Amino acid sequence: MTPDTLRDQARTYYEAKLRAHGATPAGMDWNSQASQELRFRQLARLWEDEPQAGIVDYGCGYAALATYLRGRGHQGPYVGFDVSAEMIRAADGHVTALGDCRVTSQRAELTASDYAVASGVLNVKQQAGDAEWASYVREIIADLAALGGRGFGFNALTLYSDADKRRPDLYYADPLELFDHCKRTYSRFVTLLHDYPLYEFTILVRR
Fold this sequence. Notes:
This protein is an alpha/beta fold. It has a single domain (3-206), classed as Rossmann fold. 37% of the residues lie in helices and 21% in strands. Strands 1, 2, 3, 4, 5, 6, 7 and 8 form an 8-stranded mixed β-sheet that branches. The longest helix is centred in the first third of the chain and has 19 residues, at 3-21. It starts with a helix and ends with a strand.
């Protein structure tokens, strides 16, 4: 499968979730708002004590991260990007009342900001093979690196998940391999967070 095919596959999957559940955590395939916000909390460590930092939310869904940030005093510009135009319509209504926030479904409209993050984007491979999905994961990480001038972050399901609980349509990444990749490719300053109670990890890269 080509990267465009994988993106189209992801778009179809998440649009079905949105139609079924609306602009809610379930509509983004999360099991609760609490788990969604726990993921946001890990990513937000990138800009601690920087309330004016600019954020690119890559795969923003309905832009729940924007509400999370504004509710915690963050004031910097927020740009949400999602390949699904349906998601962006839902997100646009969500951010209307928030200051200095915008969303787009066009990658060409994105410019580099202080930080770029992706939450949940790397998980659902569906029919893709592990090798081709791993290549796609690295492509997305490279895009995050291009968009986050001062740093970037992402989360992924962990290979350390119990084998009997894994789903064949999901991708379980090796956190050590991705830590090494980011360390060797992007920055000496890389943090691996694997100590919160979800079957996943977060990587933060600072420059």
